[in-house]
Amino acid sequence: MFSSACASVVIVAATTAGCTGAATADPAGADRPHNAAEAGRQGRELTDREEILVRRAEQLLVKECMEKAGFTYWVGALPTVDDLSGNGSFLTDVGWAKRNGYGSRLHAKAQNIQRDDPNSAYAKTLSQEQGVRYSDALLGSPSSGMLTAELPAGGAVQTPRDSCLADAKGRLYGDFETWFRAEKTATNLTPLYAADLVKDQRFTGAVKEWSACMRAAGHDYADPSQAREKLPELTEGLSEEKGYAVEVDLAVAEATCANKTPLTRRARALETEYRRKQLPHHGDHIAIYQRMSLDALARAEAITGSTA
Fold it and tell me: Where does the secretion signal sit in this chain (predicted)?
């Protein structure tokens, strides 16, 4: 399973510098703590459902903050578990692939949500002066000071110190500055070892077995990225419905072969191995990230009155 923020770096190594989950669903309650208080005794990252609950609480806190600043704010549409999955360099969840293909319709849905966002529409109705105030209240301004987080592989990212978003995260995680720095470390470890991992003979050997499986299924591709690159060519000239059927068929084959061959389990094992090598350097930040995430989950449960 690759639902946690950084438990699947090998899956996403070819596509992103951060850490996201690959297309698998959280097992139905398998050995999971029943609430955040119980989870707090364990060091782990949030499931997708828990992450969605935290986002919901964050949006409620942003709404409260914006209304105190004199503005109207709507809690927007939250992602589903499927929305948070499927971002890796190859699919592992056959069920997700059957429902979503490679996620083209999910992407279109997200674009529509962004286009129809009531907060964006509201901001456009404000005067220029009020619009600046709205933006500063929601997102912050450099004039109020900036927080800086150094990234593990070099470089840095900044964010305004004061804003309704910062306030919401601070209330959820306990300390926004500490959270910001820990999160940017824990979710950006991939560049430290991605290049070495994808060249590891154990990984490339598994990819070759995956390719042979795909070839036997009628899809002759050397690796998952090649299959995806060819998809537009395969669907060119087809109706939306037929093109989507081709997408789903290829995605299901990709995920099926990832599981029939050693690719999925080899990727998991190598991810664990390579990630463990970073613990002496970044283990403290990872521990803080996990602890504060679980603290935020407990607060989110109290704010929303629900559990994931």
Answer: 1-22
Using one digit for the tens of pLDDT, what is the confidence trace for 31-81?
344 444 444 445 799 999 999 999 999 999 999 999 999 999 999 899 999
pLDDT tens column, 139-163: 999 998 999 999 999 999 999 999 9
Among the ranges given (10-19, 62-71, 238-247), the one the predictor scored with the smallest mean pLDDT: 10-19
